[in-house]
Amino acid sequence: KREIGSQLEFDGDKLVIGHVYIERRMRPLNLHVEELRRDGDRTRLRQTLRDYGDAIKELAGAGIFPGDMLLKNFGVTRHERIVFYDYDEIAPMTDVIFRRIPPPRDYADEIAAEPYWSMGPSDVFPEQFERFLVGDPGAREMFYEYHRDLLDPSFWLGKQERVRAGLQDDVFPYPEEIRFPRASAGSPRD
Fold first, then answer.
1. Which strands make up the sheet holding 74-76, listed edge to edge?
2. In terms of CB atoms within 10 Å, which end of the chain has fewer, N or C?
3. Which of the two residues, 181 and 134, has the higher pLDDT score?
4. Is residue 181 part of a domain?
5. How far is CA 42 from CA 32, 55, 84, 136, in A?
């Protein structure tokens, strides 16, 4: 009562809390992936990497560019759901300029230690994501079985176009195989 007195009230035998922050306990995704890799649990690793890419795509479909998409910026819940939790670098999809890396003009461009192309503060080059999304080569290949399109600027430009048109992608909390079946438009329901 001394430290948060304005938020607590006693009502007979009940304690009423006026305002409280709750955080879901999660394990950093990078540690989870490393453990699955080390244990040789390829089935769970594959599903985790698929869910990681799906989480990135769901954010984009909701109009949010996650910015820093490193594994360590995502968490795993006790039910193994993947959740993004680093909001420092998020941006509206409409504020980001997705560009393709221009081809090198000459040999000096090819061997340059620094980018040879111009960049603005809002420019993003999805082709560069390959360097940092998933570090382990085996896990990376699993990830790209499902999500190689994240490296293509056209994926991001397509999402951006939908957001600008006022469209938001559906986000399903459960895998397709355990969702209720949906009848297609015009077909009788079972």
1. 27-28, 74-76, 82-84
2. C
3. 134
4. no
5. 12, 20, 22, 13
Nearest-CA neighbor of 29 among 79, 78, 71? 71
Q: Indicate whether 20 belongs to any domain.
A: no
pLDDT tens digit sequence for 83-124:
998 888 899 999 999 999 999 999 999 899 888 888 999 999
Domain tally, the chain: 1
Confidence of residue 1 (pLDDT cuts 50, 70, 90): low
Q: Would you call 107 helix, strand, or coil by DSSP?
A: helix
Q: Is the overall model pTM greater than 0.90, yes or no?
A: no
Confidence at residue 188, expressed as pLDDT on a 0 to 100 scale: 53
Domain that holds residue 111: 27-166
The strand pairing partners of 82, in sequence order, are: 76
d(CA 75, CA 12): 40
Residue 5 lies in a domain: no
Residue 179 maps to a domain: no
Is residue 136 classed as helix, strand or coil in its secondary structure? coil
As a whole number of angstroms, the distance between CA 165 and CA 189 comes to 32
pLDDT at 2 over 90: no
Q: What are the tokens at 67?
A: 């910015």
The structure tokens listed for 43 are 């089935």
Collapsing DSSP to helix, strand or coil, 97 comes out as: strand
